[in-house]
Known about the structure:
Blueprint: H1 5-19, E1 30-33, E2 40-43, E3 51-52, E4 61-62, E5 67-72, E6 79-84, E7 90-92, E8 105-106, E9 112-117, E10 120-125, E11 131-136, E12 138-145, E13 149-154, E14 157-162, E15 165-170, E16 174-179, E17 186-191, E18 197-202, E19 209-214, E20 216-221, E21 227-236, E22 239-248, E23 254-259, E24 263-268, E25 274-279, E26 286-291, E27 296-302, E28 314-315, E29 321-326, E30 333-338
Amino acid sequence: MLALLPAGLAAQHKARFSRAKPLPSVGEFVRFFDPLTENPVVRLTNPTASSVLPAAANRFVSVRERFLIFSSDRTGRCAPYHVNLRTGFLHQITETDGLEPRSLCLDARERSLYFIDGGELKEASLTKGRPETIAEGITAFSVVAPEAGFFLVRNGKLEQRTGSRRLVLAEDVVSECWARPAGAGCLFARDTSESQREFWYAAGHAPAIRLASGRISDPFWAPDGRSIVFLREVSVADRVLSEIHEVSLANRTERCVTPTSQFASFAPNGDGSVFVGASRSKAQPAIVLLLRSVRREMTLCEHHASQPANVSPAFSPDSRRVYFQSDHQGKPAIYSVNVELLVEPLG
Length: 347
């Protein structure tokens, strides 16, 4: 069935497009057909200003309330924004002085937004917009749950903060962190050179364990929290290939899940059955779906971004849409592609 999809994909999407409701008159939404695949794509933000998606591992799309969170410098200073995906209405959530654009992350209840502003971890209500400082001197964080606390990177150290309690889990130049599902521990990264890094896992007072090292990027927890998947660059003869690898937390065994068409960035869907990637291929710089079980790829659309690693493709929580960013029409803008005909919806 998958082999038949590419031939009929354009026709199905055109049929859906012809029956679709007009785009909202409010906002900046623009629908067009991708020149390579003829799939309909929606540009959500105007490329006259820079608009940046949060990190793909962060929660930034609400399926229930149908909104998306992003950063933009449209007023001259980078700030967090909220766009209603039904109406196109867009508004600024709060003022910031030194926002880290990719740090935005919704809480589990989708009522508050966490972000790093001038080295401070802050929380802002989506309705009130007044930020409160949670911690200072922060370069990275990961939310467990409001009642369970945070994992924080402060002065190169990984801390777990629960209420007023602080526990240092790791030291030695920690750069990023990702909470394990259910909050049992935390994955973290150490950058050993400009292109080399290590992934480690830490929990409680136990010594941290190294899971992977080398030219690796984009780690994601498996839904059950028993393993991580990530991109690894592999040298073969005179070529550098990009593969998706998985390493088990229990035995630290690493294996290749699937090769890719030169993914520069990627993300899994909610159950880990499908990946979406941004190819760095100069001949075909595209957004690609990859079905894990059969290792089969399908091109969704072109991205033509100047830096493919910054395209940051990600699924919506229900796997019905893919969001990505590209600067091929000017400054970085955010785009959306409907994939519910190709990927089994979740939830």
